[in-house]
Design brief:
Elements (H helix, E strand, L loop, with lengths): L2 E3 L11 E3 L8 E4 L2 E3 L6 E6 L5 E4 L2 E3 L7 E6 L4 E4 L2 E5 L3 E4 L5 E3 L2 E4 L4 E4 L9 E2 L4 E2 L2 E2 L1 E4 L5 E3 L2 E11 L2 E3 L2 E14 L2 E3 L2 E3 L10 E4 L5 E3 L2 E3 L4 E6 L5 E3 L2 E3 L3 E6 L5 E3 L2 E3 L3 E6 L6 E3 L2 E3 L5 E5 L2 E2 L2 E3 L2 E3 L3 E5 L3 E2 L2 E3 L2 E11 L5 E3 L2 E10 L9 E2 L2 E3 L2 E3 L3 E5 L3 E2 L2 E3 L2 E2 L7 E3 L14 E2 L17 E3 L4 E3 L21 E7 L5 E9 L2 H6 L15 E9 L12 E6 L5 E7 L18 E8 L2 H4 L7 E3 L4
């Protein structure tokens, strides 16, 4: 039967004690028992709130099937030893909670969930002696405590713990089908080029966990197919996460009760939630990430968190691009490109600033969903966004109050593209309203402001200064609006020089987005994009969500022409999406208006001169 000891007085023969008095020299000994855990019982051995020393030796435990339980649970104990125990046919193995000086040796654990879980509120509660004689699913458990300035590298196994350490380099480790890489009270360290993933649908948790760990650099890691998060930050501040691949986890990155972390330039692919900020987290920056794949329900989700920023992210194929949920207040969502989903930005929180985003090819570009009187959405500022090719550009619900909407470009001519059911929402600010493609008024004095108001239904609110031109829309083109404009020169074979102003896409997120989701009606605002890579390669270009044809010219590292073609718009009849590439490896690609190459004689012998720095 399971053994339960909830205080020193429970160390009795009835609870499996064979000998000992509970001192360090003469610990209580619980040994040799075979324990099968019945359904509904969380623990095989549960020992809590003790000061006596004890040893668990040679126990055989099976049947720990409760996801919130374990074969052995030690809570608030000190000086315990677990030796030569066997755990099998179970979900979770050994839990050590808020305890000190626990020693594990020679234990063999076969489980479908976590082999070892250690939790605590202080570094001392991670001070345990756990050596590699302990085995989880045929691989040694690696547990490091109190290390300084060391390198931990080359471990391949199922469990890697580092606690109460600083100045560490944790690199080139591979943790599979197990406990992941767990850091607690680890500061000022580098975590790079590691892998943590599942090959099978085992009941594990996160790929990489940072708990109460500050000022670390997390880069170059591949974290995939983890049951919960690829990276989990909990009570951890000032960390930088960049150039990681977060693939097919439940969350790419989960940030809870953690402040001032920078999450940038990561590939976040096929996670139901790409990046989530919650638990009162503040001051976090989510920037320049690629968040994509149709299994994504939320690209970025913020709930119960304030003062965070979401900037320059490329978000495609997500059901909801950016979600500002309950108590998501005073956050900034700016210069993102959000393409091909159901809801570009969904807002339940208040006092958020949503600006300069390109939101296109959605059912609802920006949605304030109905809250049915349970919550008032107030004080949000929506400005200088471009909304294009959406079924509905903007919907403000019945419980929206005193939100400000100005300087936006509402493209499209369908009915009910913009609806305001709220009260006191303002559609002009600082003498500037919005651009409405459906506006039919005049501008007699040519100041760019319409002479008559635009009425927004059904609230009958007035945009008293509607914009009559799209010339200012360049600021609201999402990622493209933040790219630098530079002049490149093409010299054709006959010596003709062509000077072209192009946006420069020289980073992963900007190269990925290109003209994706770009409004066809604003084509003239961005004549060209120059894609710059770090080295020559033979890659492919696609026309996903690009709704106008383009010419493309490729150039090698020396600027010599390497191929060119016209890229056609995909049609619904295309069974396979065409890929476009060069005749030979290239380092630069220049996207131009359709027909530009043939019209200007650009081909073999053409040389690209890059813009000066």
């Amino acid at each position: 039967a399971p053994i339960t000891i909830l205080g020193d007085s429970d160390f009795t023969a009835d609870n499996g004690v064979l000998s000992g008095s509970g001192t360090a020299d003469d610990p209580y000994v619980i040994a040799g028992w075979e324990i099968t855990i019945p359904n509904g019982t969380p623990y095989g051995v549960n020992i809590q709130n003790t000061t006596a020393h004890f040893v668990l030796r040679g126990l055989v435990i099976q049947g720990a099937s409760d996801p919130h339980g374990a074969a052995i649970h030690l809570g608030f104990v000190s000086g315990a030893r677990v030796e030569g125990c066997s755990i099998n046919n179970s979900l979770n193995g050994i839990e050590i909670a808020s305890s000190t000086n626990v020693t594990l040796t020679g234990n063999v654990i076969y489980v479908q969930g976590l082999g070892l879980r250690v939790t605590g509120e202080t570094p001392e509660e991670y001070n345990h002696a756990i050596d590699t004689s302990n085995v989880l699913n045929d691989s040694p458990i690696h547990y490091f405590y109190g290390r300084h300035g060391e390198t931990i590298s080359g471990i391949k196994g199922t469990s890697l713990y580092i606690a109460a350490s600083d100045g560490m380099t944790i690199e080139n480790n591979e943790i599979v089908n197990g406990d992941g890489i767990q850091l607690a009270f680890v500061n000022d360290s580098i975590i790079r080029n590691n892998q943590a993933y599942r090959k099978n649908p085992v009941y594990t948790e996160h790929g990489l966990t940072l708990y109460r760990s500050d000022n670390n650099t997390v880069t170059g890691n591949i974290l995939k197919n983890n049951r919960f998060a690829g990276v989990y930050l909990w009570l951890s501040n000032g960390n930088e996460l960049f150039d990681n691949q977060l693939l097919a986890n439940n969350y790419g990155v989960l940030v809870s009760a953690s402040d001032k972390n920078s999450i940038h330039d990561n590939l976040v692919f096929a996670n139901p939630t790409g990046i989530q900020i919650t638990g009162g987290s503040t001051g976090n920056s989510i920037a320049r990430n690629i968040i994509t794949q149709e299994n994504t329900k939320y690209g970025v989700a913020i709930e119960r968190a304030t003062g965070n920023e979401v900037v320059d992210n490329a978000i495609t194929d997500a059901e909801t691009g950016v979600y500002l949920g309950v108590q998501a207040d005073h956050n900034t969502v700016s210069a993102n490109t959000i393409v091909a989903g159901a809801y570009g930005v969904e807002v339940i929180g208040s006092y958020n600033d949503i600006s300069r985003n390109l939101i296109s090819q959605q059912r609802h570009g920006i949605l304030f969903p109905e809250t049915y009187g349970k919550r008032t959405i107030v004080g949000n500022s929506l400005h200088e966004n471009v909304l294009s090719e959406n079924d509905h550009n903007l919907y403000l619900n019945h419980d929206s109050r005193i939100n400000t909407v100005y300087g936006n470009y509402f493209l499209g001519t369908g009915e009910a593209l913009v609806e305001d059911y709220g009260k006191g929402n303002t559609w002009t600010h600082g003498g500037k309203g919005n651009y409405w493609e459906t506006y039919t008024g005049t501008d007699a004095n040519g100041d760019g402001i319409g002479d008559t108001p635009m009425t927004v239904y059904p609230s009958a609110a007035q945009d008293t200064a509607p914009l009559v031109t799209t010339a200012g829309a360049t600021v609201g083109l999402g990622i493209l609006g933040d790219l630098s404009r530079k002049q490149v020169i093409l010299t054709t074979g006959d010596g003709t020089q062509l000077k072209i102003t192009a946006l420069v896409a020289d980073a992963g997120y900007s190269r990925f987005i290109g003209f994706r989701g770009y409004p066809p009606s604003l084509r003239d605002l961005v004549p060209a994009i120059l894609f710059m890579y770090d080295k020559e390669f033979q890659g492919n270009f696609v026309m996903d969500t690009v709704h106008f044809p383009l010419d493309i010219a490729f150039f090698d590292k020396d600027g010599r022409f390497a191929g060119g073609t016209t890229m056609a718009v995909y049609s619904e009849e295309d069974k396979e999406k065409k890929l476009y590439t060069a005749k030979r490896p290239f380092q630069y690609a220049l996207e131009l208006p359709e027909g530009y190459l043939s019209a200007h004689g650009i081909g073999e012998g053409t040389v690209l001169t890059l813009p000066e720095e």
